Amino acid sequence: MTANKVLGIEAGQQVLLKVITYPHEIVRAHRMMGFAGADRLSQGMRNSFGKSIERAAMVKANKPMLAVYTMESGLETAKQALERASKKLPISCRVEVEHLTKEEAA
User: Fold this and answer.
1) Confidence of residue 39 (pLDDT cuts 50, 70, 90)
2) Is the dihedral of CA 47, 52, 56, 57 positive or negative?
3) Are 3 and 68 in contact (CB under 8 A)?
4) Are 90 and 104 in the same domain?
5) d(CA 54, CA 66)
6) Same domain membership, residue 91 and residue 69
7) Where are the alpha helices (DSSP H) in the chain?
8) 0.85 surpassed by pTM
9) Are residues 67 and 90 part of one domain?
10) 16: confidence class by pLDDT, cuts 50, 70, 90
11) Burial 66-76 (b: 16+ CB within 10 A, else e)
């Protein structure tokens, strides 16, 4: 959302933001009671399927997660958007720039 916000406000041209690695894994948690006398009320981890609390993606090293396609004039804005988005992720990230020819883009 951070990258999309930066690209939408500052780009002013046609930009494509693509999420390559989508978070499909659902993380679940079994909430236990945490007050006095809870040991008599709760069943522990028995039948603990749990509620879904977040989603996660398993990403291998050096695999791209986001891609931005833009014209040469929007290159600096795209870099800034990806750098801001990388600060929201719990891993270290780097921005790589690839230039496509007209034949590759078509």
Assistant:
1) low
2) positive
3) yes
4) yes
5) 20
6) yes
7) 2-10, 38-41, 75-86, 102-105
8) no
9) yes
10) confident
11) bebebeeebee
